[in-house]
Amino acid sequence: MILLEARNVTKRFGPHIALKNLNLTVSQGEIVCLLGANGAGKSTMVNLFLGFLKPDEGTIVIAGRPVSDDLRAARARVAYIPDQVNLFPLLSGVENLTYFAELAGRRLTVGEATVLLVEAGLNGEDATKRMGDYSKGMRQKVGIAIALAKQADALLLDEPLSGLDPLAANDFGAHIRLLRDAGKAVLMVTHDVFRAREIADRIGIMKAGQLVETVDARAVESNALDRLYADHMRGELR
Ligand SMILES: Nc1ncnc2c1ncn2[C@@H]1O[C@H](COP(=O)(O)OP(=O)(O)OP(=O)(O)O)[C@@H](O)[C@H]1O
Ligand SMILES: [Mg+2]
C-alpha cells in the first residue's frame, strides 16, 4: 500500500519554484532515500508530507487521503526525525521520551519507554543517564524512539546521518531497516550516496525541484550511483 504520495506537486516561495510538478510515492515496508544538491527541494518535500507547508498545485496524499481533507488525521500518521534531536539535556532518555510521547498523546510507563529506547538501538543502561552526556548517535536513537512512541505509519527523516560516525551511521541505518521490515514507510533525505545505497530500497535524485531519477538501490553499484549522481548534477543527463 502506498502510504506517502506526492501528485504533481508544485511549491513556490515567492518567485522561486522549490518543487516543480513532482511525483513521488513511498509504500508501506519501503525506504526511499532522496539525494540532491543543497536547495534541490528535499526538505520542502518532507515539510509538505508533515503538513508544515501546503502545495501550490497538486496533492499530498497520506494513506490514500489528501492531507487537505483532514490535516490532523494526516499528521497523526507521520513522525519526523530531524538532523539534530534537541531535547532536555538535564533529563534522561527515558524522561525525554516519556515527555514527548505524552505531547503526542501517549502515556508511557518507564518500562514501556525503556523498551522503545532499546528497540531504537539505545543501550538500556544509557536510557536512564542524562541526555546532556549523550553522543549525537545516542540522541538520534531517542529521536527514533519518540517516532516509534507515536505509532506513526510513516517516518520522515531529514539528514539523520549528518555528523554520525561510520559505525553509528551503520547502526542507525540497520534500525531504520528493522522499522521498514515492521511495515513502516520511510522517506529519508541524505547527502550520503554510499549510505543511501546501503539503507534504501529506492533512491530518488532531486535537482532544482524535480525528481530527475529514481533507481532501485539493489540494482545499482555504489560507484555507478556516485557517477549517476555526479552526471545529473553536472547536467550531463536529463
Ligand atoms: N520558507 C522558505 N521561504 C523561502 N524560500 C524557501 C523556504 N524554504 C525553502 N526555500 C527555498 O526553496 C528551495 C529548496 O529548499 P529546501 O530546503 O527544500 O532544499 P534542500 O534540498 O533541503 O537543501 P539542503 O540540502 O541544503 O537541505 C531553496 O532554494 C530554498 O532557498
Ligand atoms: Mg534540506
TrEMBL record:
GO terms for molecular function: ATP binding; ATP hydrolysis activity. PROSITE patterns: ABC_TRANSPORTER_1 (PS00211), ABC_TRANSPORTER_2 (PS50893). Keywords: ATP-binding, Nucleotide-binding, Transport. Residues 4-233 form the ABC transporter domain. InterPro entries: AAA+_ATPase, ABC_transporter-like_ATP-bd, ABC_transporter-like_CS, ABC_Transporter_VariousFunc, P-loop_NTPase. It comes from the Bacteria. The keyword Nucleotide-binding applies. The keyword Methyltransferase does not apply. Transmembrane segments: none annotated. CDD domains: ABC_DR_subfamily_A (cd03230). Signal peptide: none annotated. PANTHER family: ABC TRANSPORTER ATP-BINDING PROTEIN ALBC-RELATED. This is ABC-2 type transport system ATP-binding protein. It comes from Polymorphobacter multimanifer.
